[in-house]
TrEMBL record:
Lineage: Eukaryota, Fungi, Dikarya, Ascomycota, Pezizomycotina
UniProt protein name: Glutamine synthetase
Keywords: Ligase
Pfam families found in the cross-reference section: Gln-synt_C
Family the entry assigns: Belongs to the glutamine synthetase family.
Domain GS catalytic: 1-246
Transmembrane segments: none
Length: 246
């Protein structure tokens, strides 16, 4: 995938010039965060955008989805329903969760909205875009995520929504609404890798339903190892904080 290739190319080129390009979610305190949003749409065999409808729905469940097809709504519902269960694939490192904080225009809840850049899923559709450009921007993944895993999770969740004919579980975020009070705006996504892995590996997880036990147990195990290494590490912050005070 292009994203993986460009990361390696950038790093290789940077090293030749004595610099180390960084794709950590939050490389330094006070610095901007690195995101890895992924855009997706479906196209029919005859080349038509499967997420749009020919004429607006006169009585949609929410005005924001008036131009979104039934299949698109089910795809969106699948994404929203399974998002919390897939967090280790979207945010795979300890550092990932230092990006997913309130008040920084980063998604922290199960949320969506028309052209909403603080929601987990941004809907791009008429009247703000051309019908042929109708798609979803999944804004949870970061620059440190494996894009193959991210795309697989998105397709698996969306297809699950279509197969089960799921309905959109939460209303859209109003325009201008930020995430400063995320607890009042829907299910909070995991705040740490530890929390994300615990959800990812539980018996009734959506990830097990769409990916199977073998993958979930293996990948969950790699993330548990990552957590163990973190818990054993002594950070620079700890040394600076405590070396003279305790």
């Amino acid at each position: 995938m292009f994203v993986s290739t460009i990361r390696y190319v950038v790093k290789a080129s940077g090293i030749k010039h004595g610099i180390t390009p960084c794709f950590m979610e939050k490389p330094r305190y006070g610095f901007p965060r690195n995101s890895g949003h992924m855009h997706i749409t479906l196209v029919t065999m005859d080349g038509k955008n499967a997420f749009t409808r020919d004429t607006p729905d006169p009585s949609p469940p929410y005005p924001d989805v008036a131009h979104l097809s039934d299949l698109g709504r089910q795809f969106l519902a699948g994404l929203l329903t399974g998002l919390p269960d897939m967090m280790p694939l979207f945010a795979p490192t300890i550092n990932s969760y230092k990006r997913l904080e309130e008040d920084f225009c980063t998604p922290t809840t199960v949320s969506w909205g028309l052209e909403h850049r603080a929601a987990s899923i941004r809907l791009i559709t008429p009247p703000t875009a051309n019908a042929t450009a109708t798609h979803f921007e999944i804004r949870v993944p970061g620059a440190d995520a494996n894009p193959h895993f991210v795309l697989a999770a998105i397709i698996a969740l969306g297809w699950r929504g279509i197969e089960k004919e799921l309905e959109i579980p939460v209303p859209p975020l109003p325009k201008g609404e930020d995430m400063s009070s995320a607890s009042d705006k829907g299910v909070r996504l995991a705040k740490s890798l530890n929390e994300a892995v615990a959800t990812f590996t539980r018996p009734d997880n959506v990830a097990r339903e769409v990916f199977g036990d073998s993958f979930v147990d293996h990948f969950g195990g790699t993330r548990e190892h990552e957590i163990q290494l973190w818990e054993e590490a002594v950070t620079d912050w700890e040394v600076r904080r405590y070396i003279e005070t305790v």
